[in-house]
Amino acid sequence: MPAPHFTRKVIGTLVNDQSNFNTFSAVGDINGNGKPDIVLCGRMGKMVWFENPGGGDAWKQHVVDEPGMMECGGKIYDITGNGLGDIVNGGDWRVNKVFWWENPGAGGGPWKKRVVLTTGNGQFHDTAIGDITGDGVVSLVVTNQQNGTDIFRVPVPRDPSQEPWPGLERIAGRMRVPNERFPLREDQDFQPEEGLAIGDVDGDGKNELVCGTHWYKYAGGAWQCHAFAPETYLSTKVQIGDIDGDGKNEIVLSEGDPCIYGKTEGGTVAWFKPGNDITAPWAEHILESGLLDAHSLGIGDICGNGRADIFVGEIGIGDGSGGYKSRAPRLLLFENDGRGSFLRHVIDEGTGTHDAVLADMRGTGALDIVGKPLHGNERWNVHVWYNGGV
Known about the structure:
By secondary structure, the chain is mainly β.
């Protein structure tokens, strides 16, 4: 089958700390006009949002803040309930706080930065927002990776202006997978779990939480933890969706940073299906191995046929001089036949991407791809791959 045709466009540029790169990016409706906008922030330097013109190249850039010491993995979410997207993100290894920035609205003015939560350690990485307790309460979930992975949950309060938010709970602590080849620190032989997703994993009509190779269920006032994937998966990205068309959700993992952490053979993207005992390890279905840090993963009807296709984007391995080692990074599309078998397509090749997401950027009903590189001469650019269909 022919793959959808994608056209890559540079919609904006944000040059931050020259010795680093832009870490945090997210997509969501900032100004309440129904069009997805883009937020971008460097580890050091400015945080900005790019206003979606709804077509064409006239993206307008607005400064949010200059926070410094920011990690990736944040979200755009309407925290105040006024129809405008606010911003949530955590600090890097030097900051033990997660913040939110309140949208000032059409009148403009400064974005008010407030503390959501404080822990004893820095190095936040992922966020997810949704009801994971089955009581209708929306919670913010974050991971902290300083010493393994601690998973924290805090309910979004009626008055989110209070600092910090009350009700902070640790769901799990020091979750890790073994990695003796290239741990984060010389005194560690493990890798923190990574990646968050919220969805109905066990088919009971309520959401569970997936972090890395484990899923978590809230029952009887306590959290139950179950391993579904091999602990050989490092620094994963996570998505939940019905992959084989049976009306039940499966889990997709891609290894986001395996090359960085010493897995020289590259990473794997695979989907996992439960058996009769959903608490036992799930069946692994590998789509591809040898990937160069596939830190972008998405599930959606990319081909326009009503099926759950899978998108994977590689960061690539930078050579330190504006190019890439090994080979050029790729963006891949796995076209689903509706029963869990896939046809592989190369969307683009030559420029990597980081934390790219699927979103309908033009209101056409087709899912586009939004991301930014970490390496190469284009690392300060924001890319949109527009989906032109088959």
